[in-house]
Design brief:
Blueprint (H helix, E strand, L loop, with lengths): L2 H4 L17 H5 L1 H5 L4 H20 L5 E6 L5 E5 L8 E2 L4 E2 H7 L22 H7 L1 E10 L2 E8 L2 E2 L4 E5 L6 E8 L11 H14 L4 E6 L6 E6 L4 H8 L11 E7 L2 E9 L6 E6 L2 E2 L5 H20 L12 H4 L3 E9 L4 E2 L5 E2 L2 H21 L1 H35 L19 E6 L1 H10 L5 E6 L11 H5 L2 H10 L16 E5 L4 H17 L1 H5 L3 E4 L4 E5 L2 E5 L2 H12 L6 E4 L8 H9 L6 E3 L7 H12 L3 H11 L9
Parallel strand pairs: 1-10, 14-16, 19-20, 19-21, 21-22
Antiparallel strand pairs: 1-2, 2-9, 3-4, 5-6, 5-9, 6-7, 6-8, 10-11, 12-13, 13-16, 14-15, 17-18, 22-26, 23-24, 23-25
Helix pairs in contact: 4-6, 4-7, 5-6, 9-11, 13-19
């Protein structure tokens, strides 16, 4: 992990904790500090406290972090770091522990010499968590003593006091907090959400052991994350559902201009790139200078190698970055003293020195690796050259469709029943599987604002196809043309012809498979449509209940039972129909239940940028070639599945 590069030799005592400002604003505008008061913000509280412990690990003082979800949905985080300073901070005139937990922007992260590099972005962690918790208590173990302070809604109950003795060797901090249910929309923690984030944190902090336990379950659920190989093991984990093209993960590490750089990468047999970039253990979904440096080094180094070793003739065009990165899984992790973030969401690194540091370290070490491993180098170059040819074929196919389009005006697919309103804001398109459901949908729709595109058969699984194949697929071409945005490098959201893209499939296994194929295509080639909230899943009802000429619809088994209990009554006059598919509904029923904006249920598809690695793994597991990971995934998730027709 290079913790030795991070150590400061400086003191970490009470006066290294600097005070910047007061706490009231946090409860007024929690979203400013933790992003939101939804489930995401709730889980963010845990990350803030864990990040403080990780900072101790980065500084070389902490080896273990224990996180527990307690029975009442409170959280306990314990570490074996140095323990928060408890002596008096002279500027504040009170214990440094109290300052850390009650003053905003107070911590060892603001140049007081406490930390060289820290994982938290703002140093607001502990006090914000305290302000948004009903109650919180901290125990600090230092020099054989246990120090304690408790708080309610951010205010201390009493001064820091010694409540007992501990072994002389024991050191660290233990925090327990209960989120305030008047602030958060929900206060129930999701084990899997925490598991994913903590696993990622352990990968990024080589050697650190993080244990997560759920005490709400009997028996308790627990996972331990400990990766001696750090991000090398992260790449292996990300590639687990894919076939790696060579055995060893390529690894580059070093420091330059005060930037500590780690890069791990390995190509697989898929056609998609997955590159995750991190700064001080925080994911940067929009990349930034460290990612730019990595990409530049990669393109430059592979082209130089391919030319020097006559794999690429002088007359042939250079390989593009996209060609070289086809099927690449990479993790870039930089540690930097004062990160500057750009972009509206602060998810993009701006420090110029990071670009140079990553570029130079990767160029030098990758060149050396390729010279030492000519077979691997050749494998990667050959895959890149195949990608280059496919890209060229795809470009020709694209140009051809563009030329046609220019000549014929917007040549929309023949099977598209378009809407008459031309303002995209008012329009929506239903992607319907099969002609019979398509026919009902065309009859049922509101012609002014609802377009229908029926697709025949299962669309191409893009997880297993190159660009040229994708451009040659009739069903995918129909969607691309209908949406109007283009895909991949040509994508332009301003040309989107419909505000809502609604996937409408049967509520059975086949329907779920088709939805997944569609989402895989959108996620890989038009992710911006999902990011900007344009993609929805229609929810057709599962049951129709008739009694004495009255009709009810139920969208789940629970809803059916509730209707029978509370409204319809359970007796012999009930006629209950279980819908197998959209084709069983006449146009009127389809309109009432699934298409009428006043009555339908739509589910918006979202991408959680912080979980990019898990989304990628899920798509590859479900749609890739390897059977074993898919079986494991299905077994692990079977208990969450409802209404599955086998």
């Amino acid at each position: 992990m290079g913790a030795e590069n991070m150590e400061t030799g400086n003191e970490y005592g009470a006066d290294q904790i600097q005070i910047l400002e007061g706490l009231e604003a946090v409860r007024k505008r929690p979203g400013m500090y933790i992003g939101s008061t939804s489930a995401r913000g709730l889980h963010h509280l845990v990350y803030e406290i864990v990040d403080n412990a990780v900072d101790e690990a980065l500084a070389g003082y902490c080896k273990n972090i224990y996180v527990s979800i307690n029975e009442n949905n409170s959280i306990t985080v314990e570490d074996d770091g140095r323990g928060i300073p408890v002596d008096i901070n002279h500027k504040a005139g009170k214990s440094a522990l109290e300052v850390v937990y009650t003053v905003l922007h107070a911590g060892g992260k603001f140049g007081g010499g406490g930390y060289k590099v820290s994982g938290g972005l703002h140093g607001v962690g502990a006090s914000v968590v305290n302000a948004l918790s009903k109650n919180l208590c901290v125990e600090v173990y230092k020099e054989g003593k246990v120090y304690f302070q408790s708080y309610k809604i951010g205010k201390p109950d009493e001064d820091v006091k010694i409540i007992g003795n501990c072994e002389k060797e024991k050191h660290g901090t233990k925090v327990t907090f209960l989120p305030d249910d008047t602030i958060f929309e929900e206060t129930i923690y999701d084990y899997d959400t925490l598991k994913q984030r903590l696993r990622e944190t352990a990968f990024l902090t080589k050697g650190l052991r993080i244990t997560l336990t759920d005490k709400r379950e009997n028996p308790e659920r627990t996972h331990e994350f400990h990766y001696a190989g750090g991000i090398k093991e992260f790449v292996t984990y990300l590639n687990k559902s894919k076939e790696a093209l060579y055995q060893n993960v390529i690894y580059c590490e070093g420091s330059k201009d005060n930037v500590y750089v780690e890069v791990a990468m390995q190509h697989n047999d898929s056609y998609n790139e997955l590159t995750l970039s991190f700064v001080n253990n925080i994911i940067t979904p929009e990349g930034g200078t460290h990612l730019a440096g990595f990409r530049n080094a990669l393109t430059k180094t592979f082209n130089a190698y391919a030319r020097a070793n006559k794999l690429l003739k002088d007359t042939e065009p250079a390989l593009s970055g996209d060609d070289i990165r086809e099927g690449l899984t990479a993790v870039i992790s930089v540690k930097i003293e004062e990160p500057q973030f750009e972009g509206q969401t602060k998810q993009k690194l701006g420090n110029s020195e990071a670009r140079g540091a990553v570029d130079s370290i990767v160029s030098e070490q990758l060149t050396y690796f390729l010279e030492q491993n000519p077979t691997v180098a050749k494998t990667i170059c050959e895959k890149s050259m195949l990608a280059q040819r496919a890209r060229e074929a795809a470009r020709k196919a694209r140009d051809l469709t563009r030329r046609k389009t220019a000549l014929e005006g917007m040549a929309l697919p023949g099977k598209l029943a378009d809407c008459s309103d031309k303002d995209p804001k008012n329009c929506e398109i239903f992607i319907v599987e099969g002609d019979s459901a398509g026919g009902s949908a065309k009859t049922a729709r509101s012609r002014a604002t609802q377009a229908i595109l029926p697709l025949r058969g299962k669309i191409l699984n893009v997880e297993k196809a190159r660009l040229d194949k994708i451009y040659g697929n009739a069903e995918i071409k129909a969607m691309i043309t209908a949406f109007g945005t283009g895909i991949h490098d040509d994508f332009d959201i301003t040309k989107l012809r419909y505000d809502k893209i609604i996937i409408m499939t049967d509520a059975d296994v086949d329907g779920a498979h088709i939805s997944t194929l569609m989402l895989t295509f959108l996620y890989r080639f038009m992710p911006e449509l999902i990011r900007q909230g344009h993609v929805y899943l229609a929810t057709p009802p599962l049951y129709k209940i008739e009694k004495n000429k009255n009709v009810w619809y139920a969208y789940s088994d629970e809803e059916l039972n509730k209707l029978l209990e509370e409204e319809v009554g359970r007796d012999g006059n009930n006629k209950i129909q279980r819908y197998k598919g959209l084709g069983e509904m006449d146009a009127e029923q389809l309109w009432e239940t699934t298409m009428d904006p006043e009555r339908r249920i739509l589910k918006r598809v979202m991408i959680d940028e912080e979980n990019a690695s898990e989304i990628d793994i899920t798509f590859t597991t479900l749609m890739g070639d390897k059977v074993e990971p898919r079986r494991e995934f299905i077994e692990e998730n079977a208990k969450y599945v409802q209404n599955l027709d086998v």
